[in-house]
Each structure stands twice: as structure tokens, then as C-alpha cells.
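Memo subject: From amino acid sequence to C-alpha cells
Keywords: amino acid chain, backbone geometry, C-alpha cells, three-dimensional fold.
Body of memo: The sequence and its C-alpha cells, given next.
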Amino acid sequence: MRVYVPLTLSGLAAAHGAGEVGPGPLTAYAVTPGLREWYVSDDIEELEYAALNRAAAASLRMIAGNPDEVRRRVVVAVDVPDGAAVADPDQGLSTASLGEVRIAAALPLAKAAAVHVDADDAEKDVAAAAAALGAADLGDDDAQFTVDGAEDHELLWFGVQEIPQLIG
């Protein structure tokens, strides 16, 4: 099963230094039964893209919680054995936790399939989205529009061997 672990650039640097994403337990995103039902698609690529976007939104929340963090969302895609990622059955259809899974242990960075990161030109919109997140959560439509603006930026794909250049 492929999981998408939200991080920040400093979190990616720490993972690179440690050789693993962790420690566990970790929150990640994956194609869960709830995500399948919500997204109403059988196309695995579309479903994985939806899980990636859920992780990108979680990365934005991490950025919003740390004013010193670089304003670029980061998601690490890792293949884990079936059963290693567990969805909370009580939260399966909650829109707030769609695709969310828990992983008990740290994940070796060597098992990562890819790293997805915002381009430099997304920083302004990601910064605005991070600043607007609280108001958007309270129902402010203008703030939600600003948060959605970060989602207009596609995360770029990088190989694991490119992490030193990303964090350099």
C-alpha cells in the first residue's frame, strides 16, 4: 500500500538525517474505503492523487503551526506492507479524516517512492494560505478561497536521491 506522509522542509531534512520518517506513530494518507466512497472513482491514479492532496493539506497545517517554516508543502510517498497503515473505522466517512491512516513505526526513507514538494513560485500562495487557515476553519469564505489558492499549485515530483538538493 502506498501512503502519503505530510512533512515540512525541515521535517524532510530531519528525516534525511535520520534515514527515516518518524518516529511513529505517524499520520499519513492513503486510498482507504472511506476515500473511495467519497471520491466515487475506481481509477487508482485518481484516488492516489486525492490521498496526495489530503497529505498536502496536512502539510499546510504543519506549516501554519510554525512561523519559521519554509512555506512549501512536502509529502513523502512510501510503500508499506498491507496492514501497516490502519484507518480509524469510526472516522471512515468523516470529511475531516478522509484517507487518514496511522502507521505505528517509523518509515525507512529508503522505502520512499518519491518526494512531492511545492515549487519556489508557490511560496507566496502557501504563505497566504497558512495565514488564512484559521479563519477558513471558522467558515470565512474569503479565507477559504485563499487556502484553495495553494491547492492550485501542483506538487512537483522528486526522486529520493534528490532530497539533498531540496533541503540544501
Notes: The first strand starts at residue 2 and ends at 7. Helices lie at 9-18, 33-39, 44-64, 123-137, 141-151, 163-167. The chain is about 40% helix and 20% strand. The CA atoms of residues 59 and 73 lie 5 Å apart.
